[in-house]
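Subject: Predicted fold for YceI family protein, 188 residues

User T.R. writes:
Posting the sequence so we have a shared reference for the thread.
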Amino acid sequence: MTDATRVVAGTKLPAAGTWKVDPGHAEVGFVGRHFLLTKVRGRFTGVDATLEIGEKIEDTTVRAVIDMATVDSGDQTRDEHLRSGDFFDVEHHPRATFESVSVTASGSEATMVGNLTIKDVSHPVTLAVEYLGHARDPWGNDRAVFSARGKINREEWGLAWNMVLESGGLLVSKEIELVLEVEAIRSV
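User M.O. replies:
I've generated the structure tokens; pasting them so everyone works from the same file.
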């Protein structure tokens, strides 16, 4: 087996090639505000993603498919509302996708821009990505670990349901933070 890492400009990074995200060790999450005060967190457990890490890091691509019905915010009533036509409308739009279009790297950090498609609406999203390191699991699989963050305005994807509060504020924030923590397994 060849090395799972390499040194690029003095920084240890994953080897070029295909890396598949392990859905059992992937946190594809979001954070919004309730009453514009309390943080509400959720995640999608159905994630299928592949990283094609380029010889030049700038040639790296990511393709992900998210099963929107797997949304889990820790509250069944809220999850059903998120699956409804008010938000994700999973009956008509069961999947969201992300496809990267550019990567700019500096050491173990990168900025990735990609197209996020939800409910057949696509918009560019910028993610701050950090490579956290490599580990070999007990079964001999090489894993690369990444963290990424970004912010979106959910209304750009037609996720506009809201309620005006007596105080004049909104029940649900428009700005949503995207939070990703993933392990990717090197394909052999």
